[in-house]
Design goal:
Elements (H helix, E strand, L loop, with lengths): L1 H12 L4 H15 L4 H9 L1 H4 L10 H4 L4 H15 L6 H15 L12 H6 L3 E2 L2 E2 L6
Antiparallel strand pairs: 1-2
Helix pairs in contact: 1-2, 6-7
């Protein structure tokens, strides 16, 4: 059952357009709503937030869809600090974390579509990842 539910959830967040995602979302609610009422209710409550990435440039979707970017950033630090348990005071721990983060930074991906960032910052509207032309009123 896990694989089927996972595939149905992927149909939502991997849809090409927000309209297709909403249709997949409605189907998911219809299929699983009766049996998994609490879980589906949480998804329905946060529906707008879960589908908000469709209002950003399509180039950025890959980064927004990432499940846990913060966890991956601190994985290096967490792994190293576990090994040095009890050998650190506050000052040396901060120094070690700083150096580990600087080292890990070398492996971080750059954002796709950096030329779209000014548009996002200026609040230009995107629909299904496509920039909407603004008409003069």
């Amino acid at each position: 059952m896990h694989e089927r539910v996972k595939a149905d959830l992927q149909d939502i967040w991997m849809a090409e357009t927000k309209k297709e995602a909403n249709a997949a979302f409605d189907l998911f609610v219809e299929i699983y709503g009766a049996k998994y009422e609490k879980a589906v209710a949480k998804l329905v409550k946060d529906r707008d937030e879960l589908l908000a990435f469709y209002d950003f440039p399509a180039e950025h979707w890959k980064h927004i869809r990432t499940t846990n970017p913060i966890e991956s950033v601190f994985a290096t630090v967490r792994n190293r600090t576990r090994k040095t348990k009890g050998c650190l005071n506050r000052k040396t721990a901060l120094a070690m974390v700083f150096r580990l983060m600087k080292s890990a930074k070398k492996k971080w991906r750059k954002i796709n579509g950096p030329n779209r960032l000014p548009d996002v910052i200026q609040g230009i509207e995107f629909k299904d990842g496509i920039k909407q032309l603004q008409t003069a009123a």
